[in-house]
Write a structure and sequence with these properties.
single chain; about 90 residues; mainly beta; six-stranded antiparallel beta sheet; rod-shaped
């Protein structure tokens, strides 16, 4: 399985009294798995937050504020069909 990771949608925000600055972003991890008949992508998107009390000179270690559920998409190499699956998600509900 091959893995890639990148960040998206970074945001900076100051506390109302200006004493702390927060940095939040999406941490996107993708895993790729290939067999003779399928190519599968598993995505795991989390929201991560860090803060600084010295106007950005140093930062606290990042904390996962929202741990997203991994989703998977499989491509059938022979037919070109795409299958998306998300364990635990009820697709038959409006």
């Amino acid at each position: 399985m091959k893995e890639s990771s990148f960040c998206s949608d970074p945001v900076l925000a100051y506390a109302s009294d200006g004493s702390r600055v927060y940095y939040a972003y999406m941490d996107i991890k993708s895993f790729f798995e290939e067999t003779e008949t399928t190519f599968t992508i598993i995505d795991d998107w989390d929201i991560v937050v860090s803060f600084s009390d010295d106007n950005g000179k140093t930062w606290a270690g990042p904390v996962v504020a929202l741990d997203g559920n991994p989703t998977s998409t499989a491509f059938d190499i022979n037919t070109g069909e795409i299958i998306a699956f998300d364990p635990g998600f009820l697709y038959d509900k409006p």
